[in-house]
Amino acid sequence: MNVLIVHAHPEPQSFTSALRDLAAETLQGQGHQVLVSDLYAMKFNPVASAEDFSERANPDYLVYALEQREGVKAGRIAADIQTELDKLLWADLVIFNFPLYWFSVPAMLKGWIDRVLVSGVCYGGKRFYDQGGLAGKKALVTLTLGGRDHMFGEGAIHGPLEDMLRPLLRGTLAYVGMEVLPPFVAWHVPYISYEARQDFLRSYQARLQGLEQDVALEFPRLEQFDERLYPLQRPAQ
Amino acid sequence: MNVLIVHAHPEPQSFTSALRDLAAETLQGQGHQVLVSDLYAMKFNPVASAEDFSERANPDYLVYALEQREGVKAGRIAADIQTELDKLLWADLVIFNFPLYWFSVPAMLKGWIDRVLVSGVCYGGKRFYDQGGLAGKKALVTLTLGGRDHMFGEGAIHGPLEDMLRPLLRGTLAYVGMEVLPPFVAWHVPYISYEARQDFLRSYQARLQGLEQDVALEFPRLEQFDERLYPLQRPAQ
Fold first, then answer.
1. Which of A47, A168, B22, B45 has the maximal Cβ count within 10 Å?
2. A2-224: CATH superfamily
3. Is A126 in CB contact (< 8 Å) with chain B?
4. Which of B50, B151, B229 has the CB atom closest to A10's CB atom?
5. What is the ipTM of this complex?
6. 3-state DSSP call for residue A161?
7. What digits encode the pLDDT tens for the residues A194-217?
8. Cα gap A20→A96, rounded to integer Å
């Protein structure tokens, strides 16, 4: 497998970085090719803007997705985006490795999503969900957070973590057609002992070694909807 | 009322910008004070990093929220963050005005959230949800998107829009204690006629003029949970 790890954490010595390194080593040890995009180290630019295109289909009015679609065809998309897009297209598995900020990805990683998941390649028209442009690839979300396990789930104070992650898991990764594996979550990280961190590293390693057996999450398929994307009615019983 | 509009769109002539201007004029016309943070025009820096602190509580290892908490007390938080935080604390109503990118806020706005919702002021310890540091303020999310109305809702292809917005509405705005009003949504914006846009502007203006009557969304309250944040059991009937 070709594996891309997209990593975003402002502290190079963080536990999140240890998860990144462990994933790279473990997967390389299994004979996979691994690339890492360390967005903070790269000083990646997270801001989608007119400057992302050397020439514009419409220089007077920016519709970002339209310029992506035209720009990627014409080879006039910013070099940093094209580089990341090439890595993404090369990858069979993409691991998103980050600390949860506001129940979501850090802005740095959101900017990678905004800029690199280019319209016309990753999605467009009726190419989304199971028909998305990245169908056939797997996605794994690996995150660290401050909260405890019992604060999430049905009836818990924040509700199910998967519900908070919905725009990422469903609205982004499943939307572009990726097979989305259940997230790997390290809880309460800033407050736990060295031993508890080692436990997370061991269980992450085991998870990575058995990734082939993982069952992907379920999301909508376009065949369940009509041409105008209304849900198909099931015949009454 | 003091009103802060946080606006993030890469095209100054966009319909989203028209919504911003309409909100500013309408609310000023009612005698309210209005400030606008136009993040693209300000070239706002969305990246949370060690550079946000002139001195660090722990110079060897960055825990961002901890440095926020210590930095804001000691007056050593970056000037651009302090300026935005001052506007936020001044405001009675904050309007978040943006195009939906990947069922979420653009990275530019996510960075404002990551950096400006400072730990120790906006939340911290048991100060969240109804006990959050921004209790007493109202939040309105005003967004534009490409999708159509019928693609959202129970059974629709993307499910309810509020579910996609959960990390923003609940995990961010309700979390810091704000009273979260139902979002104002302009659908299918890149594809609609001038007249359809005028309709959205008229209905937005009416909504803003009647904002006092808006009923806020419901979210958890800390009194429903015990000291360790486990849900309190209801007595069996």
1. A168
2. Flavodoxin domain (3.40.50.360)
3. no
4. B50
5. 0.97
6. helix
7. 999 999 999 999 999 999 999 999
8. 9
